[in-house]
UniProtKB/TrEMBL annotation:
It comes from Halovenus rubra. It holds the Pfam family DUF7123. This is DUF7123 domain-containing protein. InterPro entries: DUF7123 (IPR055547). Residues 1-81 form the DUF7123 domain.
Length: 82
């Protein structure tokens, strides 16, 4: 069974917050590479800590994105590539 880049294989195992973050990243990853937790949090009405905690599941999952913790100045920065 094959999947498309738009259909992550493990989305059902993600929490609602994790799915929101994943959608957010997918919508923007083709135009932007680096994302700060606090800015994602502001856009999704979450705390930066919630974003950081939930990004681990996305970082470790097999989705159409590659997520890597990149930096820590003034908020954790994530490098996201498609």
């Amino acid at each position: 069974m094959s999947t498309t880049a738009d259909a992550p294989t493990q989305t059902p195992s993600l929490s609602e917050k994790q799915q929101r973050i994943l959608r957010y990243l997918k919508e923007r990853a083709d135009k932007q590479t680096y994302f700060k937790s606090r800015l994602i949090a502001d856009d999704l009405d979450l705390s930066a800590k919630e974003v950081g905690t939930n990004m681990k599941a996305i970082e470790q999952g097999e989705f159409a994105l590659s997520v890597e913790k990149w930096g820590y100045s003034s908020s954790t920065t994530w490098m996201v590539t498609t």
